[in-house]
Design brief:
single chain, about 290 residues, TIM Barrel, 11 helices, about 40% helix, globular
């Protein structure tokens, strides 16, 4: 699989989004771990999770514990796997999400993530979502402190605007390495952020690149151009969607979620699809 940079690390061009393995509708633990292992077998070297990926506050950190368990049980080498996690969200248990951008909380969340992942420093730690009650610079400032303290190796932000990306880069003294925003055929509002990250040399990590849990099958119906190109290149519309994202920038690293080994392998295979410029333009216009 082709590689792409995040900071000074090279990772697979397509990663694994862990969220479907931890929230409502998740598979049993055996299947979840098998899905992670299938991704690793397919060459995936970046796994994205978050402390809030769980059914509720009673099992906060479920996703991180699952990833730590899956990596420990994997039969092959995992030294080159980058685990990216996030802090700043919680789930009360009623299906909702709450934001917590207080710097003290972000640091507390990072400490808990370190313990759950069983590492001395988190490879990539991202602030999950802006908190309207807390100035952005203060929340991001917690990442700067965590970098200085050696608790995290790299820092990123999620759900950020262009202006917030620039402010985060300033607060971090040029050490921002990634931006994780929603981006898919049905949600293209982050086009500007994608282009800005490309300009700055920062990784852009689309979350829900296939439209979200349970929505990937809708690509063919709602965006027929993706099905047309899929027929032309001998792939699925979902694989073409991921290949389209890779073609939009050298720093784009989509993280499709999977709950079955077969879909994890199929997503990883999309990194080998090369689209013609005309096909990318057609998909852009669809």
């Amino acid at each position: 699989m082709q590689q792409r940079p995040i900071g000074d690390r090279m990772v697979s061009a397509i990663g694994l989004g862990e969220m479907p393995l931890s929230i409502q509708g998740r598979p049993d633990r055996t299947q979840a771990i098998a899905t992670v292992h299938a991704s690793l077998d397919a060459g995936v070297t970046i796994i994205d999770t978050a402390d809030a990926y769980s059914l509720g506050v009673h099992e906060h950190g479920h996703g991180e514990v699952l990833i730590a368990e899956a990596l420990a049980a994997y039969g092959g080498a995992t030294d080159d796997v980058l685990v990216a996690t996030k802090g700043g969200h919680r789930r009360p248990g009623d299906g909702s999400w709450t934001v917590h951008g207080d710097p003290a909380y972000v640091k507390e969340a990072c400490e808990a993530s370190l313990k759950r992942l069983g590492v001395e420093a988190i490879g990539l730690y991202q602030y999950h979502r802006p908190d309207p009650k807390v100035p952005w610079a203060e929340s991001v400032g917690a990442l700067a402190d965590l970098l200085d303290e050696g608790k995290i190796v790299m820092a990123g932000v999620s759900n950020a605007t262009v202006a917030q990306i620039d402010e985060a880069q300033q607060v971090l003294g040029g050490r921002l390495v990634s931006v994780q925003n929603e981006f898919s055929p049905r949600f293209r509002s982050s086009e500007d952020e994608l282009a800005h990250c490309e300009k700055l040399g920062i990784a852009f990590i689309p979350w829900s690149p296939l439209g979200g849990i349970g929505r990937s099958d809708a690509i063919e119906q709602k965006f027929p151009a993706f099905a047309e190109v899929a027929a032309e290149v001998g792939a699925s519309p979902q694989q073409v969607t991921l290949a389209w994202m890779l073609a939009k920038g050298t720093r784009v690293i989509p993280i499709p979620g999977s709950s079955r080994p077969a879909t994890a392998v199929a997503s990883a295979a999309a990194a080998d699809i090369v689209l013609a410029e005309e096909q990318v333009a057609r998909l852009d216009a669809s």
